[in-house]
């Protein structure tokens, strides 16, 4: 969530009130490089971890009442935070939101902080199909719903029944799948919502076959994507289903291009990697701009970033 307001951070009494609301789970000046998979970015002014919906509602109400700028952090696998860091409040769901429950009817209720990769493995091990595409996506459930993460012709929205989240004014809302305007890499959830849980309808099937599909997807990833070095996955959205951003960047001759420590991966042109963890956020941002300019100038293609930039 990225709503602009001022003054950033608020006064000491607000900090004290938030601190008390979350039993002290508030950290100051946390380096973004430590909580994002790209490993870049400066200090987050306030990082708050909530362990219940009631805590989340209380904190959001406090921050909204003082018109504070709020962000929500999942696993940081699609984020670029500026070198100067972030003035304001970042909310994160704690381990109480990692629950996964399956009903007798094959409905899976999953907490917003549950790791998507582990979820994909867990459901497939139990013989449920529908999340094979997610094997290898290092997201939180909440982040993957917000982004409508997808791969291998599947996406989060496909098997979703409903999404539950808290709005900035503290209201807890559940949306049925068909109440949201899902698009490629977008849920259309209202600005500022924090997704706390989602429900999926998965289909029981042949366990060995489902597991085989997960393994096949992972094997394909390992052979085509630079998974062993820091990155944020695909940097740009595909311009169309027929035209991949990776192909555009490769055709524009950008594989291997670099600025500072940031490199367009020689393995996959739509991935910017930080192999030695020496890149700054500005290196990455400038490389993103360079890719956009060259894709436009050489091939006439506009590339829209998929990576979310916080500054
Ligand atoms: C190695 C690698 C492989 C990847 N492969 C894929 C892929 O195949 N397909 C794909 O789609 N993406 C892929 N990604 C990108 C990334 O994993 C997805 O975009 C994912 O959905 C981000 O989830 P996150 O929890 O890390 O969110 P973050 O990166 O923390 O946040 C991303 C956005 O989601 C919002 N957000 C996070 N949590 C919540 C919440 N609980 N409620 C509301 N908003 C929230 C944030 O505010 C931000 O706007 C990959 C990334 C990496 C590093």
Gyration radius, to the nearest Å?
Answer: 20 Å
Beta-strand share of residues: 25-35%
What's the number of structural domains?
A: 3
Structural classification: alpha+beta
CATH class of the largest domain: Alpha Beta
Q: Bound small molecules, which ones? A: flavin-adenine dinucleotide
Reported by name, the CATH topology of the largest domain is: Uridine Diphospho-n-acetylenolpyruvylglucosamine Reductase, domain 3
**Unreliably modeled segments:** 1-6
Give a structural overview.
The longest helix has 19 residues, at 281-299. The chain is of the alpha+beta class and 311 residues long. It is globular, with a radius of gyration of 20 Å. Helix 1 packs antiparallel against helix 2 (53-65) and helix 3 (116-125) packs antiparallel against helix 5. It is built from seven helices and 19 strands. Helix content is 27%, strand content 26%. The strands form six sheets. A five-stranded antiparallel beta sheet has the order 6-7-13-11-12. It has a four-stranded mixed beta sheet with strand order 1-2-5-3, covered by helices on one side. The chain has a four-stranded antiparallel beta sheet with strand order 15-18-17-16. The protein has three domains: 12-95, Uridine Diphospho-n-acetylenolpyruvylglucosamine Reductase, domain 2 (2-Layer Sandwich); 98-208, Uridine Diphospho-n-acetylenolpyruvylglucosamine Reductase, domain 3 (2-Layer Sandwich); 227-310, UDP-N-acetylenolpyruvoylglucosamine reductase, C-terminal domain (Uridine Diphospho-n-acetylenolpyruvylglucosamine Reductase, domain 1), CATH 3.90.78.10. Strand 9 (150-151) and strand 10 form a beta hairpin. The protein has helices at residues 12-21, 53-65, 116-125, 141-147, 207-224, 245-251, 281-299, and strands at residues 26-31, 43-50, 70-73, 79-81, 86-93, 100-102, 107-111, 128-129, 150-151, 154-155, 160-166, 172-176, 194-201, 203-204, 231-234, 258-259, 262-264, 271-273, 308-310. The structure holds flavin-adenine dinucleotide. Residues 1, 37, 71-79, 93, 112, 137-140, 142-144, 146-147, 149-151, 193-195, 227, 231-233, 308 line the site of flavin-adenine dinucleotide.
């Amino acid at each position: 969530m990225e709503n602009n307001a001022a003054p950033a951070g608020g006064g000491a009494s607000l900090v004290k009130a938030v601190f008390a609301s979350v039993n002290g789970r508030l950290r100051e000046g946390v380096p973004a490089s430590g909580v994002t998979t790209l490993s870049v970015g400066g200090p987050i002014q306030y990082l708050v971890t909530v362990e219940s919906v009631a805590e989340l509602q209380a904190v959001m109400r406090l921050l909204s009442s003082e018109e504070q700028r709020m962000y929500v952090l999942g696993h940081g696998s699609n984020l670029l935070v500026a070198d100067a860091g972030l003035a304001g409040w970042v909310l994160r769901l704690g381990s109480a939101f990692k629950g996964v429950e399956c009903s007798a009817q094959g409905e899976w209720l999953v907490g917003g902080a549950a790791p998507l990769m582990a979820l994909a493995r867990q459901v497939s091990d139990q013989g449920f199909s529908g999340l094979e595409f997610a094997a290898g996506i290092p997201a939180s459930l909440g982040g993957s719903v917000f982004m409508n993460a997808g791969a291998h012709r599947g996406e989060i929205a496909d098997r979703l029944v409903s999404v539950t989240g808290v709005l900035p004014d503290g209201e807890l809302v559940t949306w049925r799948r068909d109440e949201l305007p899902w698009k490629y890499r977008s849920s259309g959830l209202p600005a500022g919502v924090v997704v706390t849980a989602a429900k999926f309808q998965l289909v029981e099937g042949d366990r060995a076959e489902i597991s085989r599909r997960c393994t096949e997807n992972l094997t394909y990833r390992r052979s085509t994507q630079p998974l062993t070095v820091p990155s944020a996955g695909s940097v740009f959205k595909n311009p169309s289903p027929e035209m991949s951003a990776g192909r555009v960047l490769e055709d524009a001759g950008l594989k291997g291009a670099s600025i500072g420590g940031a490199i367009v991966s020689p393995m996959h042109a739509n991935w910017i990697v930080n192999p030695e963890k020496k890149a700054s956020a500005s290196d990455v941002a400038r490389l993103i701009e360079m890719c956009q300019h060259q894709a436009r100038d050489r091939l006439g293609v506009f590339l829209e970033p998929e990576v979310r930039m916080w500054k």
